[in-house]
Design a protein that fits this description.
GO terms for molecular function: long-chain fatty acyl-CoA hydrolase activity. Keywords: Hydrolase. It holds the Pfam family 4HBT. Belongs to the acyl coenzyme A hydrolase family. The protein has one domain: Thiol Ester Dehydrase, Chain A (Roll), CATH 3.10.129. The chain starts with 13 loop residues before the first strand and ends in a 14-residue tail after the last strand. Strands 1-3-4-5-2 form a 5-stranded antiparallel sheet, with helices on one face. A hairpin with a 3-residue loop joins strand 3 and strand 4. The chain is an alpha+beta fold and about 130 residues long. The chain contains 1 helix and 5 strands.
Length: about 130
């Protein structure tokens, strides 16, 4: 049995398998751990667009759609949805391939985060122009 959705046909920003230390005694992965991984995944395209350091300034939305379990293979897909003078807004989708049911894939999280490009003094700086 193959569930929908399937993994998106686009580059994956991050893949990780939650460990027992990332979960409660029942094997459910902590939401805060997932949020941290989403932030890391979202920062990748933001840093590339900024051509350098970025800081997370807002979590615009964050929805936990399904629980995440120890042993799930999580795939994080991040894409830029908006840019400003100094800011980059990134949409992140997270899918879990359930290791207990190898052919089951479920969307577990959706989020949108905003990052600001910063200089060496950690002050906002203008995004570079596209080449």
């Amino acid at each position: 049995m193959t569930s929908t959705p399937v993994l998106p046909q686009k580059p994956c920003a991050l893949r990780v398998v939650p460990q027992p230390s990332d979960a409660n005694v029942h094997g459910d992965v902590f939401g805060g751990w997932i949020m941290a991984q989403v932030d890391i995944a979202g920062s990748i395209p933001a840093s590339r667009r900024a051509n350098g350091r970025v800081a997370t300034v807002a979590v615009n939305s964050f929805v936990f759609k399904q629980p995440v379990f120890v042993g799930d293979l999580l795939s994080f897909y991040a894409e830029i949805v908006k840019t400003g003078n100094t800011s980059v807004t990134v949409s992140v989708e997270v899918f879990a391939q359930r290791m207990s049911l190898a052919d089951e894939t479920v969307k577990v999280t959706e989020a949108e985060l905003t990052y600001v490009a910063t200089d060496l003094d950690r002050r906002p700086r203008k995004l570079p122009d596209f080449a």
